[in-house]
């Protein structure tokens, strides 16, 4: 379910869609193998916001992804596939640290898919307003039509919250349309605070993406079963 607001605002004469979030390396044993005893792992880029940018670029829509990425080969492994798809990653901050991982065991028969995150203290969790000087903000948002954030951004750690607010507010001042995907992930450290943290974004967003299961889980609508919520990203 999606909810549109601010429909009477003129669309800026811009074309780039900017997404912001943590990049992950997704590791999966081949076939339906389990992680214990696996002798090989397939590696793919993960992260909800990076996936949105990759999908847009594949469709020919100018897309830019912003994040804070480890300055090591694991960070290179995140950026190269996105660059190959045409995503603009030139202003991604490279810094010391680690890349978050998502380990996925594909389901087989009655066995469900199993997802395990290893993302504590990743480089993205240290994103700070000092990473967003005026010059970088201009490069990120000066030609942007949309800025897209998700609830994952707000619940993965406390430290990035101020930097994300800087981006959101600066986009608003520039007349950039802003979208917000609630995208509840119950395994994240601050998932229980998402409703509180998301409230200002929901009030100001031009476009909101909200799954019914998340609306029920966060008490945005009447109580009811939340259903299966966890999907690898």
Sequence-ordered SSE layout with sheet pairings:
Blueprint: E1 2-4, E2 16-20, E3 24-28, E4 42-46, H1 48-58, E5 63-66, E6 68-70, H2 73-85, E7 93-95, E8 100-105, E9 114-118, H3 134-141, E10 144-150, H4 151-155, H5 161-173, E11 177-181, H6 194-204, E12 207-209, H7 212-217
Parallel strand pairs: 2-5, 2-10, 3-8, 6-7, 10-11, 11-12
Antiparallel strand pairs: 1-12, 3-4, 8-9
Number of helices: 7
Helical content class: 25-40%
Assembly type of the chains comes to single chain
**What sort of overall outline do the alpha carbons produce when their principal axes are compared?**
globular
Strand pairing plus helix content: what structural class? alpha/beta
Q: What is the succession of H and E elements?
A: EEEEHEEHEEEHEHHEHEH
Mean pLDDT: 87
DSSP strand (E) fraction? 15-25%
Number of strands: 12
Low-pLDDT residue spans: 1-12, 222-230
First-to-last CA distance: 19 Å
Gyration radius over CA: 18 Å
**Strand order in the sheet with the most strands:** 1-12-11-10-2-5
Q: What's the story with the biggest beta sheet? A: 6 strands, mixed
